[in-house]
Specification:
single chain, mainly alpha, Serine Threonine Protein Phosphatase 5, Tetratricopeptide repeat
């Protein structure tokens, strides 16, 4: 028994060495790949959190240990693009495209990244080539079409945008007639600028048939008629805008007043404004405009009452305040006028009167359905 016990104790260290050796070999085989996957997952987590710098470091660690991680390389290229290092982004994405045996779903993602690289690099022809090919593919069709529409808008290729939109979206479940209407309006504006008023008007009317709550078709149709000296037709569409979409009626006020004043038809302006208020009694721009007409007629008390009601709703309304001050000054109520101005200074926000794009912040000289700079 004693000999057997001694023999057993001799075997224990040998067994421990064997177990540790097996564990070490196993760790050596699985360690780098497991570590690479951990780094990749960490990179995704940091990328989702908006920390591109740390995400890039993690993706770099992942590909250093596993060169087969295509998505990590892909994301590194995307980060380079976001940092405006376009050459590096293109280098990575082009090299990925040359690899063999890449899964089809990753090939699509590589193509998407390359298209975005080319767009940012200003290489539009190459971007068009990829996007037009992808727009015919079911899996990436919508994504590619949206990017193509952006490019067409930036290049003012409104006809191509209309045709593509009708071909892809209007046949599916994602139809948005307001977008198609915007493209047709932009086509019309290009014709309007070269005095092709009739052709422009046909497009404006197509846009109106697609979206009757958009005030711009009414306004542009009216402008085209007025450019041809067809005053009554122009006024008809200005009035229709006021009736159909009264909250946007203020777009028409300068044209309505200029046109009717030139014709000496002053009373019609007041009638139009009162009709709007009959539909929408809280319409602030119309109240201010009507107050201006009443002031011109010498009906100061009625104008003052309207303007005060506006300032109760919008204390920072500068136009209402200035008109009210003018009325008070004309009746030598200077202290009351100064009080209104003082209140306005406390409450009003400075507003840029230019029409700025919500996406790229660039200004346009007039109200447009599509930003001519970024296509938004």
């Amino acid at each position: 028994m004693t000999d057997f016990t001694a023999y057993w104790w001799l075997l224990i260290p040998v067994a421990i060495v064997i177990i540790l050796t097996v564990m070490a070999l196993s760790k050596r085989r699985s360690g780098p790949r497991a570590t690479a996957m951990e780094a990749y997952v960490d990179g995704l987590r940091y990328l989702t959190a908006g920390d591109e710098h740390t995400a890039f470091i993690k993706f770099r660690q992942a590909v250093d240990q596993d060169t087969g991680n295509i998505d990590a390389y892909l994301k590194m290229g995307d980060i380079f693009r976001n940092r405006n290092l376009i050459d590096k982004a293109l280098q990575i994405h082009r090299e990925l495209k040359l690899r063999r045996n890449v899964p089809s779903e990753l090939i699509v993602e590589i193509e998407k990244s390359l298209a975005q690289d080319y767009i940012k690099a200003g290489m539009k022809e190459k971007a068009f080539e990829i996007l037009e090919r992808m727009s015919k593919n079911g899996g990436s069709k919508i994504w590619a079409t949206e990017r193509l529409l952006d490019l067409y808008a930036r290049d003012r290729k409104w006809r191509e945008a209309c045709e593509l939109y009708q071909d892809v979206f209007r046949k599916g479940s994602r139809a948005n007639d307001s977008m198609l209407a915007s493209f047709k309006l932009m086509m019309g504006l290009d014709l309007h600028q070269v005095e092709e008023y009739h052709k422009a008007r046909l497009l404006y009317k197509e846009a109106l048939s697609l979206n009757k709550t958009n005030p711009l078709p009414y306004l542009y149709i009216a402008e085209s008629y007025l450019s041809e000296k067809r005053v009554d037709d122009g006024l008809d569409f200005l009035k229709r805008l006021c009736e159909e979409v009264p909250k946007y009626a203020y777009y028409t006020f300068p044209l309505i007043e200029e046109t009717l004043f030139q014709l000496g038809r002053y009373g019609e302006v007041e009638d139009i404004y009162r009709n709007i208020l009959n539909q929408d009694s809280t319409n602030v721009p119309t109240k201010v405009a009507l107050a201006g007409i009443l002031e011109k007629k010498g009906e100061f008390s009625a104008a003052e009452s309207l303007l005060k009601s506006v300032l109760e709703i919008e204390p920072g309304n500068s136009m209402a305040a200035l008109r009210l001050v003018n009325i008070m000054a004309s009746s030598r109520r200077l202290e009351a006028g100064l009080s209104v101005l003082s209140g306005l200074a406390d409450k009003m926000n400075r507003r840029n009167q230019e029409f700025k794009c919500r996406k790229c912040s660039k200004a346009a000289p007039r109200l447009l359905p599509v930003c001519p700079y970024c296509g938004a």
